[in-house]
Write a structure and sequence with these properties.
single chain; mainly alpha; Growth Hormone, Chain: A; two-stranded antiparallel sheet; globular
């Protein structure tokens, strides 16, 4: 009966959640293009994959500091248009403008490219906190798991638009003054225009419910070190184990995704316009399976769903490694090599979204309303820490052992995460603390 009531009530929030998801849509639109083409732009100036991987961690370095800072600032902001919206309507358009200029900077100099990468990451990570906080401000607590599935679907749709649609524009030449026909540019400014449109829709159609879901306790902000002490000091260690598990599965994920575009071009021989399609397969699976994976977890349990998905990820990554070792050097046609790789990346995305969609609600279930923000901050701390750790490691592995090594590394990380999840005892709807 409780489940039925929740679903019936959620129907009244789907449109609102979709509109809130436009904020996440903008991130999902820029992130795959960033992850795919920034390493390619940097490789025009830098030979070391390890150095490229280190530069690719800048967004995650900024995220660790800027997400909690600007989320806290927005908590204390009071304006006629709300507390999150002032940040969203200023920082997201700034992110869009800088994002659109990045390919042009790559035609000029490494210094200008690095400056714009820094600027983009400052604006984009500063706004991420207010964007993330907008959903729990408006959606009631008992509906946030369902809302998280809808928002993950929005992110998947954005990845599809970016990687399947916009990335094709990288093959389209435009006339630049003094350079003539030039390709590898157009997807970025078009994405920027879509981001600005999404911001306008979000601003005009989403009205913040100021104070509706906010209490004095929920506005309390605890420093990250104090939060870590609180979690680590608990007698029952389920929260700690799930945080460590997500650290490892994000290390595995972030070690692979920034390099699949480069892998597609250098190993599989795709065009630069098709380089993002491997990540696009992940995005399609993300969009298709975000909501169903939540339904499956409701029926079978979150823990068993996540652990099953992690085992499946180990298998898929092993198959990708075998694909690299056996299929790529074989006499198979280039198109079949690429299509089979895309199919494996789709399978990867299907099981990956199953892990991601259900892990955040599982962690939330361990919290109460007064410390929900602490647990949310810890989720982002560990996931962003993984994003800092992983690319330099896998970049170095590529330099030493070749691209295939990153898939083996990711499989090992997923296996470690599966082991750690086995020690998690809480997080189901029926055993909330």
């Amino acid at each position: 009966m409780e489940h039925t009531d929740t679903k019936r009530t959620m129907k009244g929030y789907y449109l609102t959640t979709f509109l809130i998801g436009l904020g996440f849509f903008t991130m999902g639109l820029m992130d795959p293009l960033y992850d795919t083409y920034i390493p390619i732009f940097l490789s025009n100036f830098i030979e070391s994959n390890a150095l490229i991987g280190s530069i690719m961690t800048l967004d995650n370095v900024f995220a660790i500091f800027l997400i909690p800072i600007f989320a806290a600032l927005s908590d204390r902001t009071r304006t006629p248009i709300g507390r999150r919206m002032p940040y969203i309507i200023t920082l997201l358009p700034l992110s869009a403008v800088v994002f659109g200029l990045i390919p042009l900077s790559a035609l000029s100099s490494l210094a200008l490219l690095i400056i714009l990468i820094f600027a983009l990451n400052i604006f984009k990570q500063a706004v991420r906190g207010p964007v993330v906080a907008l959903m729990p401000d408006i959606i009631p607590g008992d509906l946030r798991s369902e809302a998280n599935g809808v928002i993950n679907t929005m992110g998947g749709i954005a990845a599809i638009v970016g990687t399947i649609g916009l990335a094709r524009l990288m093959n389209v030449s435009i006339i630049l003054p003094g350079r003539g026909p030039t390709d590898n540019i157009l997807a970025f400014p078009v994405a920027s225009a879509l981001v600005i449109v999404a911001v306008l829709l979000l601003f005009f159609f989403v009205k913040e419910n100021r104070g509706k879901n906010v209490t004095t306790e929920s506005e309390k902000r605890v420093p990250i070190l104090d939060s870590l002490k609180e979690i680590f000091g608990e007698k029952e260690k389920s929260a700690l184990f799930i945080l460590l598990a997500l650290l490892f599965w994000f290390i595995g994920y972030q070690g692979v995704l920034p390099f699949v575009g480069k892998y597609s071009v250098e190993v599989l021989g795709t065009s630069k316009g098709s380089a993002a399609l491997a990540a696009g397969m992940v995005g399609i699976a993300y969009a298709l399976f975000a909501i169903p994976s939540g339904i499956i977890a409701h029926k079978t349990g979150r823990k068993i769903t996540i652990r099953t998905a992690l085992i499946a990820l180990v298998i898929v990554l092993t198959l990708i490694l075998l694909h690299n070792m056996v299929i790529v050097p074989s006499g198979m046609s280039a198109s079949l090599r690429v299509y089979s790789f895309w199919a494996l990346m789709f399978a990867f995305g299907m099981f990956w979204v199953t892990v991601v969609t259900n892990s955040f609600p599982m962690l939330w279930q361990m919290a109460d309303y007064s410390n929900m923000g602490i647990y949310t901050g810890l989720y982002y701390f560990f996931s962003q820490l993984a994003s800092i750790i992983a690319p330099p490691i896998t970049g170095a592995l590529i330099d030493i052992f070749g691209f295939g090594s990153i898939f083996a590394f990711a499989a090992i990380c997923m296996a470690i995460a599966w082991f750690l999840m086995g020690k998690v005892k809480r997080g189901e709807v029926s055993n909330r603390t």
